[in-house]
């Protein structure tokens, strides 16, 4: 299924079920989209990162907050990595600290099962548990999407041991997924700005004919294009686009770049979008906040903008004068 087809499908489902989240998730599940990257043998659709990116962008462009990342790209991946059975019950995933706690976990309170990556001795293990067995404190992020705190009893978790690198891979997967979603919302912010500036008149002519407006729109479009290019490069760096493949150092660097670029682009898009739309863009009735609020939240999940800026700088410095160009060009 192409990106355009996914966008049309998401749009049709949202139009019919926007006010019924349960029905929305059911319809997406029937279409094979809630476990898009799960293995066919495990009941998934067997798609890759490219298809998942198309789904995440389509959802973001329609202002849809869905637990696809938590359910499919994180929980489903963790279960398959650990050799645990996966079914269609809704899942969320988290990395627990030594005390069995995790903060701001997406959609945990709405999940049937929680797939937990937790420390065991000097290593790590994966446990897939009933959500009712974990203490969950509901919360919301700045986009009003569910982000909940967890507290599990470490002694009650009897998981399957996994490679220590699973923790880093978990963060990279979440980071890339959020970068993809940001680009979908950035696309829509640009659409909203173009529509407003070309139809709104001031002093007898459209806003888009004023040079200062043209410069602002051009800056927004440039940031949008740069963010999309960085994210596309990160997705393309995944070996064969295979959804369960580990990210090698080159792919990890591209993900760090994508997160840095999309984080900075989000700041510019929010500022420019609200400046150009003026008072109407700050109202709840206008669509703009459905895209600006989520990207401000997403850019700080699975690592802040400052964190990923630091990763990019440290990786480039470590590559040295001889290795920097190959690192950049791949």
TrEMBL record:
Keywords: FAD, Flavoprotein, Oxidoreductase
Residue ranges occupied by any Acyl-CoA dehydrogenase/oxidase C-terminal domain in the UniProt entry: 174-298
Family of this protein: Belongs to the acyl-CoA dehydrogenase family.
Keyword Flavoprotein: yes
Keyword Flavoprotein set for record: yes
InterPro entries reported for this sequence: AcylCo_DH-like_C (IPR036250), AcylCo_DH/oxidase_C (IPR009075), AcylCoA_DH/ox_N_sf (IPR037069), AcylCoA_DH/oxidase_NM_dom_sf (IPR009100)
Protein name: Acyl-CoA dehydrogenase family protein
Coiled coil: none
Annotated organism of origin: Gordonia phosphorivorans
Any one Pfam family match given in the protein's UniProt record, by short name: Acyl-CoA_dh_1
Listed cofactors: FAD
Superkingdom to which the source organism belongs: Bacteria
């Amino acid at each position: 299924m192409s990106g355009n087809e996914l966008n049309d499908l998401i749009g049709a489902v949202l139009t019919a079920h926007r006010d019924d989240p349960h029905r929305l998730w059911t319809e997406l599940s029937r279409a094979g989209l809630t476990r898009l990257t799960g293995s066919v043998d495990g009941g998934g659709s067997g798609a890759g990162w490219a298809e998942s990116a198309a789904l995440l962008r389509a959802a973001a462009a329609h202002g849809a907050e869905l637990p696809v990342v938590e359910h499919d790209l994180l929980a489903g991946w963790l279960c398959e990595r650990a050799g645990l059975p996966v079914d269609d019950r809704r899942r969320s995933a988290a990395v627990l600290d030594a005390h069995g706690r995790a903060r701001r976990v997406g959609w945990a309170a709405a999940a049937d099962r929680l797939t937990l990556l937790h420390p065991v001795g000097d290593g790590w293990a994966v446990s897939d548990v009933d959500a009712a067995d974990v203490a969950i404190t509901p919360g919301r992020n700045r986009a009003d999407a569910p982000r909940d705190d967890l507290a599990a009893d470490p002694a009650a978790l009897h998981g399957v041991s996994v490679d220590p690198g699973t923790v880093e891979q978990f963060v990279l997967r979440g980071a890339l997924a959020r970068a993809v979603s940001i680009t979908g919302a950035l696309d829509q912010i640009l659409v909203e700005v173009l529509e407003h500036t070309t139809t709104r008149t001031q002093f007898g002519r459209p806003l888009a004919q004023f040079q200062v407006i043209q410069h602002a729109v051009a800056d927004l479009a440039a940031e949008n294009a740069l963010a999309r290019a960085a994210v596309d490069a990160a997705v393309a760096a995944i070996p064969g686009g295979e959804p369960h493949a580990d990210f090698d150092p080159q792919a990890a660097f591209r993900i760090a770049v994508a997160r840095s670029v999309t984080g900075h682009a989000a700041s510019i898009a929010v500022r420019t979008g609200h400046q150009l739309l003026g008072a109407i863009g700050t109202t709840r009735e206008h669509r703009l906040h459905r895209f600006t609020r989520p990207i401000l939240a997403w850019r700080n999940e699975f690592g802040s903008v400052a964190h990923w800026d630091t990763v990019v700088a440290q990786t480039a410095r470590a590559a040295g004068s001889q290795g920097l160009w190959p690192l950049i060009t791949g």
